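Let's practice the habit of predicting before peeking. Look at the sequence and jot down your guess about where helices and strands might fall. Then scroll down.
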Amino acid sequence: MIEQENTNSQMTEDTQNLKKAATSDKKSQKCEIQLQEVGPLSLLVEDEFENVEELRVRGAISGSDVEFFGSVARTYSTMRVLDISQTEGLKEIPRRAFIDCDHLSTIVLPEGIIKFGESSFENCEALVSINFPFSLLSIGVKAFAHCSRLSAIQLPDNLEYIGAKAFRDCDSISSIFVPAKVSDIGAFAFTYAMHLRIFEVDKSNEKYRSEDGVLFSGTVLLQYPQGSEEHKYKIPNGVTKISERAFVHCSLLETVKMPESVMEIGNEAFYFCSNLQSIELPINVSRIGVDAFLKCQSLQRIDIVNFNNYFDSVDGVVYDENCKRLIIYPDGKEDDEFNIPDTVGSIAPNAFGGNEFLKKITIPASVSSLDNYFFDQFKNLEEIYSYKALTIVPFGFTLKSEDKGTHLTIYKRSSTSIWQKIKKVFE
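Done guessing? Here is the structure:
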């Protein structure tokens, strides 16, 4: 037991006693500190806790004391348990207090805490158990990001705010229950939680709801649980927007059916849905976000309902309504060559981003310019036919012939042996 006198005049003596006591506990690998006044912990040096596996603290502490505990846990990989449940006066876990404490497995907190600061427990990769005080109102941005072993969390009834990316990459979480008072969930709060199978929301929550385990806010589909084992999903009628990254890495999904009410598909909405095989965009879709279907390696075509006033689909490739802009060439489309239609004047960034089948592409004269990184999208391209001399020639390609009559310029990848030699030089 470490005793602390409650007088400023004895601060130096008390600090020396703290050091002696902490040192004497090294062999037992446990340390218990009893405090009557905030302050002396900041005067201790970290090596007083070098071999401590379990640290228990009682009495009054401050945010700076919590930061000190975090510093100790980062410095020494021996510390596994921190119990400050019997302390008082603490209102907030400071920003980044326990970031990168990757050996700390158990944290026990006191009541009275109202806020977990930004990145307060980020990258605590060994963290298995932590309690959420009933008094807690706010969980900050990235507070538990990359806590890959955290499997069971019980959000308190008084919670109001969950910050962006708060539980990103928490791979072991299987379910989330959103309490009634939560009124603000930040972007990507639960993305890349690869074993998350279901969202549940208190029925009295006025902003959020769950249907079939999927999280919604009003007419917006916020997130489909990435760990769901379902292969098919039908979006409910009335949904107008699919949020950014709503279906990211839902690797088991094969088909998603959208109702006519859907008008907007967010950026990377279906990113890396590797088994998604078919999709049909409804009549009212007016916006498709950047990389909405990128890395969908099984998606061979994207169809669009007739009479859509914003987009068209030709042989599974998505264009704007007049086929003047090529928007998406499906990643799973297995053709080895593609002639861009001569109606196309522009190509959306990363339109071919994930396709590995194309070996030959023809670019019409109608295409006025190409993005500087246009050719970086192609993994196995061997020939480029262009009706204009290219101002950007991809690395490893050389001019092979030029037809003056049709102004067709042909570029081919260097021979395999030369190409391999070039690769070796740069590897």
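How did you do? Residues 1-14, 19-26, 417-427 have pLDDT under 50 and may be disordered.
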